[in-house]
Amino acid sequence: HHRWTETAAIRACLRLGGAWSKLSATDVSVRPLKGGMSNEMFICNSPGGKAVVVRFFGDQGDLVDKKTEMRVFGELARKNLGPKLLAVIPSSATHSLQSSEIDLLPNVLGLNVEDDDEPIGRVEEFLEGFQTLTVADYKNDAQLSAIAKLLGKWHCTQTESMPKVPRIFQDLANLTRQVRDHKGSEPERWERLLGRAVNVEAAARRVVEELEASYQGAEDLVFCHNDMQYGNVMQEANNGRHCLIDFEYCGYNPAYYEL
Fold first, then answer.
1. Distance between CA atoms of 167 and 250, rounded to whole angstroms?
2. 240 close to 150: Cβ distance less than 8 angstroms
3. Which among 32, 33, 159, 206 could disulfide-bond with 41, CB atoms 3.0 to 4.6 Å apart, if both were Cys?
4. pTM, whole model, 2 decimals?
5. How far apart, in whole angstroms, are the C-alpha atoms of residue 12 and residue 230?
6. What angle is formed at CA 199 by the lines to CA 193 and CA 204, rounded to 5 degrees?
7. Going by C-beta distance under 8 Å and a sequence separation of 6 or more, which residues neighbour residue 166?
8. Could you give the C-alpha distances from 246 to 62, 165, 228, in angstroms and in order?
């Protein structure tokens, strides 16, 4: 079920301020953007202006804190390590974006993440001229070398939006809780697949203990993307420049976690 429409995306754009605030809904062209696994995305164009991406978040369970993700996204944008953040869409804007009453359009969207208002989406720069990599690109030594250099820049950056603690421990703890509470795939299903009884929670604890035993300390940590599948790497057609997208799982980890 998709609850977000092209009209909602247009209405978000009309709240960007600047030249957008002088447009009407009929001035904006919009089309769905494919490729989001859980998000709903739209590309919006204004006459003579740059295209933007309106992204409405889907359900990503307990692994993603949307407020933290938004703060990280804005910080990386300021460091030129990702697309520019143009606006945060707060949950308080839901009714005005989905209503058919144009008079309900409230104030201009801002860049701040409010403590008492959960973000439900964002408006970001559209990376014109960029294409998503393919499986074949990950078998190309020149591509891998360029991506490694880009990751080197990431690993040298420091962010204020996240604590410098291993994210993998937090994620595994969340996943273990989900298994314990029978969220997602049922343990019984895994037992049928394996043909034997499985104590998933105990197995997960052993993995965490092994990782904690190998963890050397804060000096071993770098800021990682943590989701380096090829669909999250973009390349500009003209000059070959690479850019990473989708920062839901960013955080500090040992550098080898990127592999």
1. 8
2. no
3. 33
4. 0.83
5. 29
6. 100
7. 211, 215, 221, 252, 253, 254
8. 17, 21, 10
